[in-house]
Each structure stands twice: as structure tokens, then as C-alpha cells.
Write a structure and sequence with these properties.
Structural class of chain B: mainly alpha
Keywords (chain B): Cell membrane, Membrane, Transmembrane, Transmembrane helix, Transport
Family (chain B): Belongs to the binding-protein-dependent transport system permease family. HisMQ subfamily.
Order of helices and strands of chain A: EEEHEEHEHHHEHEHEEHH
Membrane topology (chain B): Multi-pass membrane protein
Pfam families (chain B): BPD_transp_1 (PF00528)
Distance between the termini of chain A: 18 Å
Number of helices of chain B: 17
Largest sheet of chain A: 6 strands, mixed
Bound molecules: adenosine-5'-triphosphate, magnesium ion
Helix content of chain B: over 70%
Protein name (chain B): Amino acid ABC transporter permease
Shape of chain B: flat
Number of domains of chain B: 3
Order of helices and strands of chain B: HHHHHHHEHHEHHHHHHHH
CATH architecture of the largest domain in chain B: Orthogonal Bundle
Oligomer: heterodimer
Chain lengths: 267, 431
């Protein structure tokens, strides 16, 4: 839960050359509202994400960041408004939901690997059953992604035998095996020790460098500065401020943002 | 300027100490005995007292066991041979062994059939029990129920063959229509299977002697065979039903949920023996007159319902123990409900539930002896009825009930050992 901007967590230098934002829309959220019972968690959310964007969402605990990105792949149901992901409108139709979920990868705070399957099986499961990829091909694919996150030698171990950082990188590889068009990250590093944070962030940076559309809920402000093209600040279920990282960090407009930044950056 | 003690400040180890064994009194049986049996005067006292108790029990039991009589025609013959020595009359087991195993009216010349079915049970269950075996062997498991039915009940082979054909064609029909929705496919499968079975009954009636074994009616089944049969069938049926009930109980559709909860709570609230009486007597009133609904089938239905309610609750515990993140990860990858359950949720929930399921299975297996109360002659029914009531063996309680206990113990202990092996094998979380 540490909210750091320390050099030790600062990732490697970032090559921004391939990070290009197109003007095709990846996600569009219009006037979205969500309630938990009588509690109004998300209020009038409007957000358009273009292909190739790297968006960092931050805000105090309980502000609805997780809820927002979980609505995008229908892990949570929204009650009002419209969400369109990659041309498919989210409705209660299960076919649409499954289609969106297979196009959108998600990485959780607590990894959520399947403990009864090996690392390789974790990665090949969805391609085999959802995409109907032949097993052999799915395995080759998975090995490629495991190499990319630098743990091919652990392929036949079980998640319980890996460190937290390794598990989170497997979780990223598992999502990538579905060749998603969009990746969602919900505080992927906040359950990790500092050294492991770096290895996970490095993986995420590589992904960004390849032009992946990403929305990350994170308190890693170093990552936000280096990788994001847009930072969104949420409070009480609303988007309070959004801007390019330099402007956002150096000249925050709203008082709420200033207070939040002063708290997490410690000056 | 120095703020540390001169001697303790710097230290470098130059030679490393090699591993050496612990002192003799810290090793092996000596250490174990000293720590566990004689660590203080109270433990020593307990050890000595227990040794004495074990000794006096065994000094009574072992001679009784080893000087027992194995060959005699009746209890009085036994007494003559023993001439006042207090020893077991195991001759009853030798003489009535087949009755204990098969009941008293199963045709003697057909004893090989249940025996073969029993041996095949191990062969055909192995692919399910040991996932290391080639998956193709599961075909054997599928064929087993039909083969076992034919072996036990006899009659023409048309019956099990058409039953099998119905299942296979029903499955094919399900596969062909499943894209139009689960409910449609299920109906299609049931209709196709139903037609095949209906034709099968007609055909079997027309050619009752086509490749036929001597038919044995249900009321002639008995002995330990009946317990094994009820136990195996009911455990293997109640597991899938229990899973469905547990999932149904979690369903978002109120009708399914309410139906499952009502079923589970009702069955759990009723003693098994009541259900068996219902099967025996009451069910006959509800069925159209003239239908001859097999008693064993009725009992199987009741015991299965009973056990599946319990297993459903055990599995519900397993489902509840899974973190929500597992469901979410499965959803987020785009798996549909069936896939998520089959590939992610149930394997883990069932693994957690193994001890509970085995508990139910072992309990159920022993409860099959309750059928002796509704005048079926399982092993206990045989002992209580025909054997103890006979003039020859009236009064041989210990030997008979001891043998029955031993039979059950062997089976239950095997199940328990298997489940522990399975749990170890499935332990992949390395906590
Ligand atoms: N299932 C739920 N039922 C009721 N209220 C919930 C539920 N999940 C979350 N909430 C509430 O909704 C609000 C937003 O939760 P959310 O998890 O989106 O916050 P967050 O911004 O991700 O916080 P954090 O930084 O602590 O993860 C919180 O006040 C939380 O208590
Ligand atoms: Mg959160």
C-alpha cells in the first residue's frame, strides 16, 4: 500500500517511440452511474479511451477506481449509462459480455492465479477453451509470453511455488495469451515488496512500449510520469481531474488533487 | 571514538564446521521412546498401564482367535470339538461364507457373475480414481454399469446394449443441439434416449433369450454383494447430484435456488430409515397399480437422494472457501459459466471437500446395512435372519458380526487411505 515515488521503484528508461495514440476509440463510457444498494459509488462517469493510450487512475481509497475498471469488463454491473468496448456495447447479453471479456485483459492486485494448475496451464486455459486454439499452439504461444515476462523456466511449477512478483508477471502473461486489445490493471504492484514492484513495472512498461492500450489503477507515480499519457484523479465516485502527467503533477488544478498529491508525494 | 567492545567488533570465520550426526540418545527409536513414552513419571505410569491393558486384551483375544474351529457343521459340533475351551466357532463363516457374500437365494452356479463384476469394478474404476492412467480407459468406466447390470441380473444382453445405445445417442443428440441452448439440448437428449430405451424394452421382450445369462430377480440379491452394490451405485450417483444441488443452491434464478434449498433441507431433516420405509411401502401407493417398480431401484433412489443432500452441503462449504478472486479471474478471461465451474471452481472446491465427501461416502456405505430393516437380506440381514435363526448356528454372535465388521472396515479403510493419497497428490498450493 505504499505510495511511492522513490528512485528504487523508478522503472528503467522508457522508449516512447512506439507509443502512439490513434484516434480510434477503444473504450467509451458515457454518463455511467453505479450503485451498491443505496450507495452511489460511481457518478456520471464520462471517459473516452483511444487506442494506444496509457491511462493511470489514482485517487484516495474508496473513491471507486477499482469499481470503474471492473465495470469495463462487466465484473461489476452498472445501472445507468453506456459503456462501449472495442465496438461492442455492454448489455446484460451474456454473449456480448463474454466477447468483451475475451478482448480485455485484467490483472488483479492479488494475482488470482489458479493454484491447481501449473503456470503453463494457467496461461493456456483460456486460449484453449475460449479461443479454441489447439493445445500445442497455445502452449507455444504461452511459452513466448512467459519468456517475455522472463519466467519461462517456471512453466511447470505451480503458482504457490513462485514469488509474488513472479506470480504477478505470470498473471500478466496469462492475460496476454488471449491477445487482448486492452489491458486493465487494478493496483498490480500494491501487494508486492519493493524489489518485486520493479520487475512487474518493467513488464508493464514493455507492454506500453509495444503500443498496448492500458488503464492502470496504481499509486506508482514514477510509472505514471514515465509511461502514462493521461492521469485521472478520482474522488467520491467522480472524475475530479484529468491531464497529461507533467501538468497533472506539476500544476494540479483542483484543491482536492493538490491535497492528494501532497499526501502521497510527501511534500 | 570506539563504541563497540574490542573483542566483539570484528570477526571472520575461516574454517567451516562440517555436518555431524546428533548424539545417539537424540536419534531413532531411543529418542522417540524417551520423548513420547517415558519423558516424566506420569507418562511412564501411563505407558505401563496401557501396556498392561493391551496385554490383557490380547491375551484373551488371540487364543480365542487362533484356537478357533473352522470346520464343523453346527454350533454344537463346535462345542464338542472345543471341549470347554473358550474359542471362536468360525466354522459358521466357512459354512455360510457364500450366503454372507451373495445372500441365500442367489443361484449357486451363477456366483461367478457377481465375483467377476466385483473384480471388474476395480479395473473400471481405476481410470477415474487414478488420473495417471491413460484417459482412453475411461471408456471402460462408461461401459462398466451396463456390464455389471448384465452380470448381476442376467437376462438378454439386448437390455444393457440398448440402454448403452440410448445413453450414447442421447449424448450425440445433446452435442448436436447444444448450440441452441442447454435446455433444448437436454430435452433433445432425453427424447432420443427415451425412444431408444422404449424400442429396447420392446426388442428385449421379443427376444428374451438372445445371448442371455440366467435371469436373477432383485429379491434374490443379498449378502455383502447387496451392500457393495448399493454403496457403489449410490456414492457414484450422489456425487454428481450433490454437485448440481450445490451449484443450484448458488444459482441466481430464484426457482432453481428455492427448489434446491427445499430439497436439501427436507432430505437432511428426515432420517434415512424413514426414507427407506417410504421406498418399501409408501411408494407403492403412489405408483400406478400393476407397475412393478423394482425394490432395489427404489432403495437406490432414496439412498442417493439422502447422500446427495449431504454431499451438496459439503461441496457448498468447498465453494464458499474459494476466494472470490478465482471466480473473477475466470470471468475476466472470458470463460463461460460452465467452463469456469468445470475448469476452475469445481476442481478446487472438490479438492477442499474431499474429507467431507469421504465422510459421507463411508457413512453411506455403512448405512446400506439399514436395508436389513425393510426385509432385504444384506450381510447384516443375512446374519440377523437366516443364519442366526437357523438351529445350527443360533448363538454365534461374535464371530458373525465380527466378520461383518471386518468386511466393512476393509472397504472403509481403503476408501479413507485412497482419499488421503488423493489429497496429498492434489496438494499444489504449497502453503
Ligand atoms: N461489493 C460491494 N458492496 C458494497 N460496497 C462496495 C462493494 N465493493 C466496493 N464497495 C464500496 O465502494 C466504494 C468504492 O470501492 P472501490 O473498491 O472501487 O474503491 P477503490 O478506489 O478501488 O479503493 P482502494 O484504493 O482501497 O482499492 C468503497 O466505498 C467501497 O466500500
Ligand atoms: Mg481498489
Amino acid at each position: 500500500m505504499t505510495m511511492t515515488d522513490t528512485p528504487q521503484a523508478a522503472p528503467k528508461t522508457v522508449d516512447r517511440s512506439a507509443m502512439k495514440v490513434s484516434d480510434e476509440v477503444a473504450i467509451s463510457i458515457e454518463n455511467m452511474n453505479k450503485w451498491y444498494g443505496a450507495f452511489h459509488v460511481l457518478r456520471d462517469i464520462d471517459l473516452t479511451v483511444y487506442k494506444g493510450e496509457r491511462i493511470v487512475v489514482c485517487g484516495p481509497s474508496g473513491s471507486g477506481k477499482s469499481t470503474l475498471i471492473r465495470c469495463i469488463n462487466a465484473l461489476e454491473e452498472h445501472q445507468k449509462g453506456r459503456i462501449e468496448v472495442d465496438g461492442t456495447v455492454l448489455s446484460s447479453d451474456l454473449k456480448n459480455i463474454d466477447r468483451i471479456r475475451s478482448e480485455v485483459g485484467m490483472v488483479f492486485q492479488h494475482f488470482n492465479l489458479f493454484p491447481h494448475l501449473t503456470i503453463l496451464e494457467n496461461c493456456t486455459l483460456a486460449p484453449i477453451w475460449v479461443r479454441k486454439t489447439p493445445k500445442r499452439e497455445a502452449e507455444q504461444d504461452a511459452m513466448q509470453f512467459l519468456e517475455k515476462v522472463k519466467i519461462p523456466d517456471q512453466a511447470n511449477k505451480y503458482p504457490g511455488q513462485l514469488s509474488g512478483g513472479q506470480q504477478q508477471r505470470v498473471a500478466i502473461a496469462r492475460s496476454l495469451c488471449m491477445r487482448p486489445k486492452i489491458m486493465l490493471f487494478d493496483e498490480p504492484t500494491s501487494a508486492l515488496d519493493p524489489e518485486m514492484i520493479k520487475e512487474v513495472l518493467d513488464t508493464m512498461i514493455e507492454l506500453a512500449e509495444e503500443g498496448m492500450t492500458m488503464i492502470c489503477v496504481t499509486h506508482e507515480m514514477g510509472f505514471a510520469r514515465q509511461v502514462a499519457n493521461r492521469v485521472i484523479f478520482m474522488d467520491q465516485g467522480q472524475i475530479v481531474e484529468q491531464n497529461e502527467p507533467e501538468e497533472f503533477f506539476n500544476h494540479p488544478k483542483s484543491d482536492r488533487t493538490k491535497l492528494f498529491l501532497s499526501q502521497i508525494l510527501g511534500h | 571514538m570506539s563504541d563497540t567492545h574490542a573483542q566483539s567488533a570484528a570477526f571472520v570465520r575461516e574454517s567451516f564446521i562440517p555436518q555431524s550426526p546428533p548424539p545417539a540418545r537424540e536419534r531413532g527409536i531411543l529418542k522417540w521412546g524417551r520423548e513420547n513414552l517415558f519423558s516424566n513419571w506420569f507418562y511412564t505410569l501411563l505407558t505401563l498401564v496401557s501396556l498392561y491393558v493391551v496385554f490383557s486384551l490380547l491375551s484373551g483375544f488371540l487364543p480365542w482367535l487362533f484356537s478357533g474351529v473352522w470346520n464343523a457343521g453346527s454350533l454344537s459340533e463346535c462345542r464338542e470339538i472345543l471341549q470347554g475351551v473358550d474359542a471362536g466357532c468360525f466354522a459358521v463363516l466357512t459354512e455360510r461364507w457364500n450366503q454372507l457374500l451373495f445372500g441365500f437365494s442367489y443361484p449357486t452356479e451363477a456366483y461367478w457373475r457377481p465375483t467377476l463384476a466385483f473384480i471388474l469394478l476395480f479395473v473400471c474404476a481405476a481410470p477415474v480414481l487414478f488420473s495417471g492412467l491413460p484417459r482412453k480407459l475411461l471408456i471402460l468406466t462408461l461401459l462398466y454399469p451396463f456390464a455389471a447390470y448384465w452380470l448381476l441380473w442376467g437376462g438378454t444382453i439386448v437390455v444393457p446394449l440398448m440402454a448403452l445405445l440410448g445413453v450414447v445417442l442421447g449424448y450425440v443428440a445433446f452435442g448436436a443441439t447444444v448450440s441452441r441452448g442447454f435446455a433444448t439440448a437436454l430435452v433433445a437428449a432425453l427424447v432420443v434416449a427415451g425412444i431408444v430405451w422404449w424400442v429396447g424394452i420392446a426388442v428385449a421382450g421379443a427376444v428374451p433369450d438372445f445371448v442371455a445369462l440366467m435371469p436373477v430377480p432383485s429379491r434374490d440379491m443379498g449378502g455383502f454383494m447387496l451392500n457393495m452394490m448399493l454403496g457403489t451405485v449410490c456414492v457414484s450417483l450422489s456425487l454428481p447430484f450433490g454437485i448440481l444441488l450445490a451449484l443450484g443452491r448458488q444459482s441466481r434464478l430464484p426457482i432453481i435456488k428455492i427448489a434446491c434449498v427445499a430439497f436439501i433441507e427436507f432430505i437432511r431433516g428426515v432420517p434415512l430409515i424413514t426414507l427407506l420405509f417410504v421406498a418399501n411401502v409408501v411408494l407403492a401407493y403412489f405408483l400406478p397399480p400393476g407397475t412393478n417398480f423394482d425394490l432395489i431401484l427404489r432403495v437406490i433412489i432414496m439412498i442417493t437422494m439422502f447422500a446427495s443432500a449431504y454431499i451438496a452441503e459439503v461441496i457448498r462449504g468447498g465453494l464458499a472457501a474459494l476466494p472470490r478472486g478465482q471466480y473473477e479471474a475466470a470471468d475476466a478471461l472470458g470463460l463461460d459459466y460452465g467452463q469456469a465451474m468445470r475448469l476452475i471452481i469445481l476442481p478446487q472446491a472438490l479438492k477442499i471437500s474431499i474429507p467431507g465427501i469421504v465422510n459421507v461416502a463411508v457413512g453411506l456405505f455403512k448405512d446400506t446395512t439399514l436395508v436389513s430393516i425393510i426385509s432385504m437380506f444384506d450381510v447384516v440381514g443375512m446374519i440377523r435372519g437366516p443364519i442366526l435363526a437357523s438351529t445350527d448356528w443360533n448363538g454365534v454372535y461374535w464371530e458373525l458380526y465380527g466378520a461383518a465388521a471386518l468386511l466393512f472396515f476393509v472397504v472403509c479403510y481403503t476408501i479413507s487411505q485412497y482419499s488421503q493419497w488423493l489429497e496429498r497428490k492434489l496438494a499444489t498450493d504449497h502453503r
